[in-house]
Amino acid sequence: MASRIRDRTTALPGANRPVAKTAGHWLLASVGKTVLRPGGRETTQWVLDHIGIPGSTVVEFAPGLGITAREILDRDPRRYVGVDSDVQAVTAVSALLPAGDHQVIEASAEHASLPAGCADAVLGEAMLTMHTDRRKLEIMREAARLLRPGGVYAIHEMGLTPDDLSPGTKDEIRTALARSLRVNARPLTIPEWVALAEEAGFRITDIHRTPMALLDPRRMVADEGVLGTARIIANVLRRPEVRRRVLAMRRVFTTRRDHLLRVGIILTRTADSPSSRAKGEKIPCPTRPPLAVRSTGPTASEPPPPGTPTP
What we know:
single chain
């Protein structure tokens, strides 16, 4: 029988899936990795430093394990609202919330079920990359709808370089990522990210780009600490099936390093955004989740590109 994710916690999304079919980020989480974003803590900190959290209402798309949620809450927002389509993630992050006007709701990022103009800042990390361009645009437009005019949308995603990378090379990289990560990873070049953002009703405020180094030993120590990194390595080494998956992911990141980036982008919602409410009126987010937490499992992911193994 194929081994299943069980080492860290059965509460992880995908915990009951065979190792061979588990999404790469949840596989890493199962062996103790806490920082799952492509740019690590460095890019997350850069993003958080640029969205003006103190005293603001912040909406986070796909908070996952709640690592960034903790950091947002440490910066004293007036209100934090997490939006995640995975009921296990909703439960896990809800347990982290302090007393106050904070909540996590079960909803998709493209249909967040929150009122228009209710947020000062929206944040999403490592989630747009896993969708088609059409779905990326839908999520960006939903972020624009949630924001007041002048509000800020921050994204932390995977990118491609150089800007004139050939379509054939892009397809090769996306297929290799999808096969190793078991998700429909579709990173974009910086101009492609910018074009989607502008179509959704944003102007670009700032861009932060650095080489992709998710599984680089130095990046891991910076993100997880020496003891945390040692614990992750020990967990990987004692499980051959997990070790093969992790090495395959690292091999893709290494062989494609000249074309992969980690990118943070700060976007400001324009007053004439196509997602604007009439007169740009701002109204508060509801005090209770609009969707009840259901007992269903994670929603199905989008179909992978041709050549990707079917889960």
